[in-house]
Amino acid sequence: MNTELLFDRVLDDVHQQGYAIIEQALCPDLTAQLYATAQAQLSAFSPAAIGRQDEQQLNSEVRKDKTLWFSGSCAAERDYLAVMEALRLTVNRHFYLGLFDYECHFAYYQAGDFYKKHYDAFKGRSNRVLTTVFYLNTPTQGGELVIYKPRSKEVAERVAPKAGTLVVFESERFMHEVLPAQQPRFSIAGWFRKNNSIAGVIDPPR
Ligand SMILES: O=C(O)CCC(=O)C(=O)O
Ligand SMILES: [Fe+2]
Hints:
The strands form four sheets. The protein has a seven-stranded antiparallel β-sheet, covered by helices on one side. A four-stranded antiparallel β-sheet has the order 7-12-9-10, with no helix packed on it. It has helices at 3-17, 28-40, 75-95, and strands spanning 19-22, 46-47, 49-50, 57-58, 66-69, 99-109, 115-118, 128-135, 145-148, 155-159, 166-170, 176-178, 185-194, 197-198, 201-202. It has a single domain, classed as Jelly Rolls, CATH 2.60.120. It is an alpha+beta fold. Bound molecules: 2-oxoglutaric acid (AKG) and fe (ii) ion. Residues 107, 115, 120, 133, 145, 176, 178, 187, 189 line the site of 2-oxoglutaric acid. Its cofactor is L-ascorbate.
């Protein structure tokens, strides 16, 4: 999909419903290169932490995936970041959200790994405005992303991870979870942030 069409669909769907789910969002070559990049660095992934730096904890009750922050050292990472930068500028032009940067990591869920219901941001406490999830492979079973309706226990969407699918949603509005993976599941989770700082500390630090 060309980026103009992609961005139009993200803008429309986020505007209308607060989230967008777009298949074949990036060219298959780039998706494959990102997948290869993630796999090549597998030994560098580490158990994901939850909470802010001062209170960061490993909580394997809540999430089991392993993550690796982008280093920008590979061409595929830089190409992905360039698309997200263009999306950031487009979103800012249309929604005046004042997004000032984007951070992302690879995530790897092995069979049995999950991420229980959570918000990526809490009203007034975080600077994460928009969440992005981009899937790098297509497990045939398990690992669905479940997005809940705002202030409700009802499911809004159940997304089967599929290589090339991009999901974007408003971080403060949508509770979501990752159901237990049954096969290896690779993705890139990212956040557009606004420039909040709490007690002079940019939040959230890595
Ligand atoms: O991988 C997904 O589908 C969502 C991951 C997620 O919710 C997160 O990393 O915060
Ligand atoms: Fe999340």
